[in-house]
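Review form for a predicted model. The reviewer records the input and the model, then writes brief findings.
Reviewer: anonymous (R2)
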Amino acid sequence: MLLNRFKSLFLIALLITACQPANVLTDVQKAGQADEKKWALVWEDNFDKQYLDTTKWTMVPPNNADWGKHMSTNKSCFRFDNGYIYLRGINNPDTATDSRPFLTGGIYTKGKFSFQYGKIEIRAKLEGAQGAWPAMWMLAEKNKYGAYPKNGEIDIMEHLNFDSIIYQTTHSYYTLNLKQDNNPPHSGRAAINKNDFNTYGLKWFPDKLVFTVNGVETFTYPRVAGVDPSQWPYDQPFYILIDQQLGGSWVGKVAPDQLPVQMIVDWVRVYQ
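Model under review:
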């Protein structure tokens, strides 16, 4: 009798579990989908010092990627003035020591700050020049799924040359290797006032990435069902990169006579 009662209770539990919706959220997901009106500021930099706050940022070193070949820690690539950081792309003043024709400044929070879900906003002014490629973007803090691009990339803002638009994009193994860049669309464009400061942002939820410009939603990349799992590597902490890039296969050749060029950043704020 007791055994039969146990079996009945077990079957009832199974039925209850089976009737639960498939999209029941974990505690982490519920936190990520909390009312964004209740999000609070958790991290910021207003660049009100005359030097880089190295508890928050590191200067981006050079690397072999198309975007990073001119990155430099040369002090001429950075300027601090009146509550702004100037990330500069310049003609190299000393090619005898460093043979690269151009040097560029960038900063990132790798190893110092990363976050998962919430909102990030960056207020900045983008100067124009042929070959200028300023970017604000995010990469995974750890290799949860393997080598790039398996952990994904979130491009909050990329700007080319003198454009009056910016690009907002996601990259992953799904979009780059499996060529699924339109299921769903992985990139959008948004108009900016190229002669003034704009605020570039991302609202990050467990089921979508919502890109913004000046507080207005401009492009959404959703998590979709029934596709390869590599479509959504955005379930882990990401760190922030802000850099004034120069040259490359996408933006084109650099015009030396149009340098220096600068991305002038007012502040960075993260909310959760």
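Findings: Residues 5-29 have pLDDT under 50 and may be disordered.
Further findings: The chain has one domain: 25-271.
Recommendation: see findings above.
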